[in-house]
């Protein structure tokens, strides 16, 4: 059986990443979503092991010590991280594991695990990103301005990604994402074992 | 409009490359097949500009001088080459251009044009390759032995390819090849212009 691929998905907030992930998992069944571990308190309706693994600061720091996290970051006084065990189990079982994290974390994962596939989701234009944030109507104008400024700063990092997907239409983008991930299974770097075996076999004929 | 991708397809003889190319072009319409130029004489039924462009040795050497070939090689006293003009026209028109050449030529093209996509087609095993060559029944056993030996020597080069496709079932392999090429359009290296533009746009918002 083929080993799965660790896929990191990032995107500007407002790019529609959340909806896209949800649709991908509904539509195709070879994916597993990585669940993050955090030290923040569960919100109303959140369940341990579903939205997040909720752990104490002490436990989280034990996980860091024991190298049980692929990456972690501290954000507004709380830790967020990606547990290694769950990801590795799913990859071994042949599932492609989707990890949704921001650009800096994504680049760190790729450095540590070079076989990771980095996908960046973008709206068709900066104007469209602004429009989407405004029409959501959930945020104050200065918060939107903040998000856009941060997007501009982060954006330089996207050149380190493997693929750029434009989220113009949800269904199209979901299908493109699926095909991009599945095609990646045929990359030579993931087929070295087969390639080397057939070279040996040919010699012995 | 997106620019097309130059796709070089190679494979062991007996891997079923020819049938695969034919099926790809029948099934999907965004491809153009590159036509080689040669100094060998046309065989019965071959037409200039369909199977090959047939040119004199003198003309061919003029093409080499004028840098009108992407790559060329001499084989059993005849020249074979890939005309640059036709390929560039088709790429500009948004077509993905398929070029079927052997491993050494493929690696030369990639060196000259790094955006070229290299696909290698292999049967599922060396035994299966041998079986296919034998059941074709068109070749003497020592010729088959020859082909297998050459396959073994060439095979080291396949690690320089971008993708490895296993041709076990024709329809499956045709579809995988199509999806691999189409996914490649979303590679970051092919989307730099868009990525850089959106970074600039975000700064100006």
Structure description:
The structure is a homodimer of 205-residue chains. The first copy, chain A, is α/β, with parallel strands linked by helices. Chain A has 2 domains: 1-30 and 96-205, 3-Layer(aba) Sandwich (Rossmann fold), CATH 3.40.50.300; 35-93, Guanylate Kinase phosphate binding domain, CATH 3.30.63.10. Chain A is built from 8 helices and 9 strands. A 5-stranded parallel beta sheet of chain A has the order 2-7-1-8-9, sandwiched between helices. Chain A has a 4-stranded mixed beta sheet with strand order 4-3-6-5. In chain A, helix 1 (17-27) packs across helix 7. The first copy, chain A, is globular and about 70 Å long. At the A-B interface, helix 5, helix 6, strand 9, helix 7 and helix 8 of A face helix 5, helix 6, strand 9, helix 7 and helix 8 of B.
The CATH architecture term of the largest domain in chain A is 3-Layer(aba) Sandwich
Rounded mean pLDDT score of chain A: 90
* Main sheet strand line-up of chain A: 2-7-1-8-9
Helix content of chain A: 40-55%
Number of strands of chain A: 9
Assign the structural class of chain A, choosing from mainly alpha, mainly beta, alpha/beta, alpha+beta, or little secondary structure: alpha/beta
Low-pLDDT ranges of chain A: none
- Alpha-carbon distance between the termini of chain A? 26 Å
Helix and strand string of chain A, N-terminal first?
A: EHEEEHEEHEHEHHEHH
Major β-sheet profile of chain A = 5 strands, parallel
Question: What would you give as the CATH superfamily of the largest domain in chain A?
Answer: P-loop containing nucleotide triphosphate hydrolases
Assembly annotation: homodimer
Largest interface, with Cβ-Cβ < 8 Å? A-B, 42 and 42 residues
Strand proportion of chain A, as a percent range, falls in: 15-25%
What's the structural domain tally of chain A?
2
């Amino acid at each position: 059986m083929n080993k799965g691929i660790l896929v990191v998905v990032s995107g500007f907030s407002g790019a529609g990443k959340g909806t896209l992930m949800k649709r991908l998992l509904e539509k195709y069944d070879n994916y597993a979503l990585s669940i993050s571990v955090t030290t923040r308190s569960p919100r109303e309706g959140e369940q341990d092991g579903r939205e997040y693994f909720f752990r104490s600061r002490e436990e989280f720091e034990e996980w860091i010590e024991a190298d049980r996290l692929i990456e972690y970051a501290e954000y507004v006084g709380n830790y967020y991280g990606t547990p290694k065990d769950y990801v590795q189990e799913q990859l071994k079982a042949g599932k492609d594991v989707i990890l949704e994290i921001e650009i800096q974390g994504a680049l760190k994962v790729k450095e540590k695990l070079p076989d990771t596939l980095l996908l960046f989701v973008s709206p068709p234009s900066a104007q469209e990103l602004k429009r989407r944030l405004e029409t959501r109507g959930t945020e104050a104008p200065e918060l939107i301005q903040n998000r856009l400024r941060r997007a501009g700063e982060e954006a330089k990092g996207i050149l380190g990604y493997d693929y750029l997907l434009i989220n113009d239409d949800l269904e199209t983008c979901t299908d493109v994402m699926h095909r991009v991930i599945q095609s990646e299974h045929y990359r030579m770097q993931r087929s070295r074992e087969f390639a080397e075996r057939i070279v040996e076999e040919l010699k012995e004929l």
